[in-house]
Sequence to fold (135 residues):
Amino acid sequence: MRIEQISIDAVRVVDRVREDYGDIDALAASLKSCGQHMPIIVDEKYRLLAGGRRLQAAKRLGWTTINARVMDGLSPLQKLDIEVQENLMRKDFTEAEINKSIEMKKRLMRRPWYKRLLEFLAEIWESFLALFSRK
Fold:
């Protein structure tokens, strides 16, 4: 298993359980603002195993590459299990958790402008330094 950045055009979508991708616009907006946190999962021939919604959203954004976890040597049953488990073994926020997140965001946005500016500048500085620390 390895993580690679692969061409979106190389990903093959065949024999999938998922038929309804739902609201791709909202996911695309999230990818655009926050980036891709979770890679899609493909087999060694770049057949999609999990992450169809992320793939569709990336296509909608015009991305040419996407981060992917490449898994070798899986049986057909293991490949099916990966798709099913990814979509079943998750839990949405409760209504109370959603409300809590809204309140937390409101608190963070009420911070003085100069604190937000300093945090922004610190993020830019870290990104700048990261350019020189890559091997």
User: Anything to note?
Assistant: The chain has a mean pLDDT of 92.
